[in-house]
Amino acid sequence: MVAVLALVGLHRLGDLLPHLANPFGTETVDRTGPVVLKALDDLYEYQAATGSFQVLVDIEQDARYLPAFIKGQRTLFVATGSVDAGVDFSGLDPAAVSVDAPRHSVTLRLPHARLSAPHLDPATSYVASRDRGLLDRIGGVFSDTPTGERSLQLAAQPRLAAAAEQSGLAARAEENTRSMLEKLLGALGFTHVEVEFASPPAG
Q: Which of 129, 105, 127, 117 is nearest to 182 (CA)?
């Protein structure tokens, strides 16, 4: 009983003399995870923009020692397809999020938007013209198949990808992502949202 009273007395003494270290005092440490990162956990990859493109594939096959009207072929193929642009959230860690709670501001560091592989639309892609030499026309009677345009479709893929690269689709995706995050984090109470896009470190 005396020991208990002694402990209580020491605790009261620490309260009365706040300038002295209180061995019985407690310290509060807030280890709550960033609410922003939690809100982004379920996004994984945000598809922020889609572009539709049409390219003309012009492929000519010539025989070295025969004129084109005897042996040769030239095909014009109109390829239509789409490319998606998205931002990957799956690799985000706490270091990618900086929160200034008193100022209700947050800064996010995200990877640049990336483009998907082109999706060729077979319903709207077609052979516009095909000029064949005599021997190719005869051979086509026996060799033409429904999958004969496969080589043209494969040739169209990199051309569609190049068109998407030059279109500014990735920049539009990043702007759309920034706008989405401003709305999302604004709903969480942040009045200032800054989104930075940067390439991931090499290695």
A: 105
